[in-house]
Amino acid sequence: MAFNRADNGFLVLDNVRIPRKRMLMKYAKVSADGTYTPPIHSKLNYGLMVLVRARMTNMQAQNLSSATTIALRYSSVKRQGRIEKNQREVQELDYQTQQYRLFPQIARAYTFLFTGDEIINLYHQTMDGVDKGDIDLLPDLHALTSGLKSVVTFTNGAGIEQCRMACDGHGYSDASGLPKIYGYAIAGCTYEGENVMLLQQAARYLMKSVVRADRGVSLSYSVKFIGKKGEKRSRLGMQAESDEQEIETLLSSLEHIARRLAVEASQEWEKRMKMGESRERAWIELTVEMNRAARVYTRLFVAQSFHRRVMAAPSSLRPVLTHLLSLYLHYECVDMAHHLLHDCHLTGDQINYLKKRLYEDLRKVSYQHDHS
């Protein structure tokens, strides 16, 4: 599907001798007498695969960027319907529904691009450490690249499909370029690891991190939120806040969801094992909840990466990036409203406030588009 030039196959070797010195023994080694020495960490066996997954986030961002650009240009040129009598038909992009479809894809494209940059830097930082015998960042890298590969490819596929449908019947035409972009991007859900299975890799790291947090052990940077207390009830919209302060509040709410889902999944796993289920049987019965926790953990990291990049941006770029970050976070929180309402972290009125702020973000992006 969409990879017409790729011809996948396999190779079977029988009774073939490979010289010991040609066995790619950077991490795992075989001595002259046949003694096998494993790598200092089992995840090093997947080093190249992890690098590919790290780069995939950037690749997916480029696919979404292309699709969004096509859809935005189409929606800027095409006019349909009149809002005021005796006025010319309006641009499709003037409709709130079209903005709601497309503007979040702009924010996502930037978000995934910035996250991809951060995860590639993390890969090189980790590998430099491994060469010196330091493997502290390796579990983070493995969990994050597994989660990102799953979440980003799935979200991108949905985003590109929204772009295609936003172009009416023209989006279905191969001449639009969108079918090829979609086919290329959606393949990422299955190559280099099937998405549902990869979420379980991230979930296992989450479960270990919950246990470590309970024991008071210091956690690595992508899971530090598990050890934080946080506010049970958010004060979002209850007091005047600047855009920057509200962004911090929204990030805290995403942390709250990720922490609760991880802890609840861990507690249920422990409960089942205490009732006599084997470790693996208990895990299999909870994989949907485990994957849910892993998905939100990954979405939290993506949001935090975007925030870190905005804070480090030049002052000339920060205002417009802050608008996109605000749009992204309000959209994410509205999308996860059921999680925020689950334990009354937010009220119904606060969810309405989130929607109101999201619509304001759409107007801000529309204004910037009109004056660009």
Automatic annotation (TrEMBL):
Tell me one GO molecular function of this protein: fatty acid binding
Stretches assigned to the Acyl-CoA oxidase C-terminal domain: 247-365
Required cofactor(s): FAD
Family annotation (Gene3D superfamilies): Butyryl-CoA Dehydrogenase, subunit A, domain 2, Butyryl-CoA Dehydrogenase, subunit A, domain 3
Q: Which SUPFAM superfamilies match?
A: Acyl-CoA dehydrogenase C-terminal domain-like
Q: Which Pfam families match?
A: ACOX, ACOX_C_alpha1
* The keyword Zinc-finger is assigned to this record: no
Q: Which InterPro entries match?
A: ACOX_C_alpha1, Acyl-CoA_Oxase/DH_mid-dom_sf, Acyl-CoA_oxidase, Acyl-CoA_oxidase_C, AcylCo_DH-like_C
Q: Which pathway is it part of?
A: Lipid metabolism; peroxisomal fatty acid beta-oxidation
Name the protein family.
Answer: Belongs to the acyl-CoA oxidase family.
According to its UniProt entry, the protein's GO biological process terms are: ascaroside biosynthetic process; fatty acid beta-oxidation using acyl-CoA oxidase; lipid homeostasis
Question: GO terms for CC?
Answer: peroxisome
What keyword terms does UniProt attach to this protein? FAD, Fatty acid metabolism, Flavoprotein, Lipid metabolism, Oxidoreductase, Peroxisome
Per the database record, which ranges form the Acyl-CoA oxidase C-alpha1 domain? 46-207
Give the UniProt subcellular location, in the record's own words.
Answer: Peroxisome
Q: What is the recorded name of this protein? A: Uncharacterized protein
